[in-house]
Design goal:
The protein has a domain of 104 residues: Rossmann fold. Helix content is 42%, strand content 13%. It is built from three helices and five strands. Helix 2 runs parallel beside helix 3. The longest helix is centred in the middle third of the chain and has 29 residues.
Length: 153
Amino acid sequence: TYAPKLILLDISDISCIRDVAKEILNCYGCVDILINNASMKVKGAVQSISLELDKKIMDANYFGPITLTKAILPNMISRRTGQIVLINSIQGKIGIPFRAAYAASKHAAVGFFDCLRAEMEEFDISVSTVNPTFICSYHRLPAPGNWEASIWK
């Protein structure tokens, strides 16, 4: 039995994810189950959302989970065991208006983890994707005309 260890991670900050994974592996030796359950979204018309914000959402919802998964994966492969779960969104299957960046990032994540599932079968590593419908999450209300502040976390 291990005492829990709190490790803070901003999943949209790709540069620190490998170090966090290394810290976890150094502390516990392995990861049996990795649950990717972080997300960021914004509501707004495509032409109103900056490319910078589109990239931030892609970092949090796509590059973040795959970077963390790739950092943990070699340990699972060497042990020939493990489970990886992506908590995604129904919008990874169908898009709705005013959520283009979010839906695109979730579609990309589904594609990546579908491919990973097939590749990891030979190593007895299970890969699952969960796509729940709409959930209530924390929301900051934006100032009028400030789409950058309309981020759900």
